[in-house]
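2.7 Reproducibility. Because tokenized structures are sensitive to small changes in the input, we list the exact sequence used for Xanthine dehydrogenase family protein subunit M, including any N-terminal residues retained from the expression construct. No trimming or masking was applied before prediction.
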Amino acid sequence: MKPPPFEYHAPRDLGQALSTLAEVRGKVLAGGQSLIPMLNMRLAAPEHLVDINRVPELAVMEAAPDGVRIGAAVRHAEVERAGVHPLLVRALKLVAHPVIRNRGTVVGSLAHADPAAELPAVLAVLGGSVRLARAGAPERDVGAAEFFVGPMESAVQEGELAVSAYFPALGPRTGGAFEEVTRRHGDYALAGVCAVVTLGEDGAIEAARLACIGVGPVPVVVDVTGSPDDAARIVSERTEPDGDVHASAAYRRHLVGVLAERALRNATREAQARGA
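Resulting structure tokens (single pass, no recycling of outputs):
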């Protein structure tokens, strides 16, 4: 199928991109790995398409000791090769296939807000944020807890552009893990769990957080600090998966519990290694 008719805009700097978005009602094109199929299947029919790939300010990735900020035009593969954040890199290796990661963007995946996507879970479990910009207004940072509003729905408002995302670094004696089950490699997960574990100086778990995908309308964040040994039950009780042709709700609920235990175990091992 072919996409419905639209007017194409290709701004050359951030100011021009924001002024264009203020003037027209349309969609932002970055990697296009989600948007273009939606256009071709007529699931989206914007009157305008604003291509941000020629905006140099959005193609910047800045790594610092406290975390990494990734611009809206930075590709999955660029972040993966740079190795700027171990948990983010681990999640990126699970995203589709290399040809998709060569074009898809990190911020685009967050703005798309697919409840089965990996990157929203990483942002959520780390307590990261997305920076939004609008013509004539100051930029605003929206935390992950408020950014993901519902399935395929984020906090980006009409006329706003998600210009970057910030992923906090893993602290001392802290490890991360990402576990998921898919029907085939590269498919969206039937269920997945991203875990971050921090150990105390005595080697005991000091903090443990999980973000679950595929089992709710947004990433489901669960703090199991006080009861990591009971993570499977806690996660199973707090998630609300839907059933479909690929898996029943009961199977997904069981699966996310198993993955929670596995992710916690692997994140703890990494935390032990980082603290050695």
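The chain has three domains: 7-51, 56-168, 174-275.
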